[in-house]
Amino acid sequence: MLKAKKCEIQIKRMNTEKHGMWKEGIDRVREIVEWTDIMLKFKPDLEFSADNPEEHMAKSYPLRFARQKELAERAGMGDMNGYINIAGLAQTAFNNPKTLALMKKENTMINQFNKEE
Q: pLDDT tens, 18-43?
């Protein structure tokens, strides 16, 4: 009798788990459909390719590093290791010829960043 009760409880737990997985699967499929619709709607207006997630990096990363470097200098260097990391990333990004060409083409913050150094 006790063994049957344990099996019954185990079956109920497994059914509950199965139902939760089913609900999560439905939700994930819904998200995929919605994001696909959103991407198709905005695809003509995208600045970068929707198919290559790395395409934006040559523009967005150097800008991010420059902004982080500026904020770190304004706020003070409480986190020296963090500042060194950001400064190194910014220097690497701004020494990349492809990045410099893209930023010149996009007429972004390159002149301001070079003046600070």
A: 999 999 999 999 999 998 898 888 88
- The single-letter DSSP state of residue 51 is S
Q: For residues 4 and 1, give the distance between their C-alpha atoms in angstroms, rounded to a whole number.
A: 5
Residue 94 lies in a domain: yes
Supply the pTM of this predicted model.
0.40
Confidence at residue 11, expressed as pLDDT on a 0 to 100 scale: 94
The answer to whether residue 93 is domain-embedded is: yes
d(CA 69, CA 104): 20
**Is residue 63 domain-resident?**
yes
Whole-Å CA distances, 58 to 47, 94, 97? 13, 10, 10
Place of tokens 């986190």: 79
Distance CA(63)–CA(102), nearest Å, equals: 12
Please give the Cα distance from 27 to 23 (Å, whole number): 6
| Number of alpha carbons in the 13 Å side-chain half-sphere of residue 44 | 1
Alpha-carbon distances, residue 40 vs 2, 24, 27, 45, 53 (angstroms): 57, 24, 20, 10, 16
